[in-house]
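Recap from last week: sequence in, structure out.
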Amino acid sequence: MEKKKNNLRHWIGQIHLWLGLGSGLFVCFLGITGCILAFQIEIENATQPYRFVEVENKPLLRPSQIHKITDVILPNKEAHSIGYQDGKSAVVTYYSLNDTYFWTVFVNPYTGEVLKVKDMSTDFFRFIINGHYYLWLPPDIGQPILTTATMMFAFLLISGLVLWWPKNRAASKKRFTIKWTAKWRRVNYDLHNVLGFYLTWIMIFLALTGMVMGFQWFAKSTYWIASGGKEMIPFTESVSKSASNPELVAMSEGKAPAEDILWAKARAERPGFKGNMDVHPPYAEDAAIELAINPAPGTYWKADYLFYDRYTLEEIKVDHMFGKFDEASTADKIARMNYDLHVGAVLGLPGKILAFCGSLVAASLPITGFLIWRGRKKKSKAKLRLATAAM
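Predicted structure tokens:
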């Protein structure tokens, strides 16, 4: 029986070794970029003063007014959203997947002064995000590579726990602490095993949430389990069906822009609201107007996504997960929470610190693991030379 256990442990060790050698560089890269991204919002707020404005006792400019100001700066580009938050600049995002542009314009929402125009293709954090998600390759190439490495890392964490598990009580005393006074090889060994053990559960969350974003089959499987066997309903763009009625379209002409009316109504219904409110103006004649109302800036999962017919202003009901938060199922809420779990934001600053520490240890494990393997290999060669000399 003991021999079978040793054989099983040996083969788990071999799988652990070769998966580590195969994915190590990618895991190290993901860990380092993950550390950089953990405090992205905090770093941007500390280094980019144009994100903030003083609150004034005067009305905010309407979305269409701000939109008109920024359109002059970025002609021939389509505004994706106009975002408002108390004490912050209004942020107008110009984004197109087809034309591959991504710009943000920061505007004082009281005066209309343009504070900053940013080409996001040159933004530092956008550069890191593209590396973290796609390895700076086309998405259909880079994302599968990194997500496969992430899946291998998840297996490494599980097999690492098996290998870490002490054989007896005496051995267990050495599994929970790092012997800093020992030689560097022993310290390196302890760093790999002890830190890996303590942060395994955080790293598993990072790996699994990363796989949800990287593999559609994994995201659908996770949703199927969370929902008790239901399929995820994919997101579809809402449309203004009244666009096919010329009379309704004609009646809307000359009136205040629909996005302004809906924005004002949403603000009136939420007095003292301190969260994010994003207005998505219609980009086509039959496009709907979307309001994204987020009571917890810095996270995304609790937001209400509201869709309206641009001519009748009637709310459009949706059956996918990106509707009203209170109407979302448990599985929908878990799916919406995935990104916030991945970056630790769901727990606020403590969660981000945990995500940072998990990413840092994840980046270190391939390095300490490689040094352990190289040390054992050198030791084996030395023993072989001694045995050959003795003959």
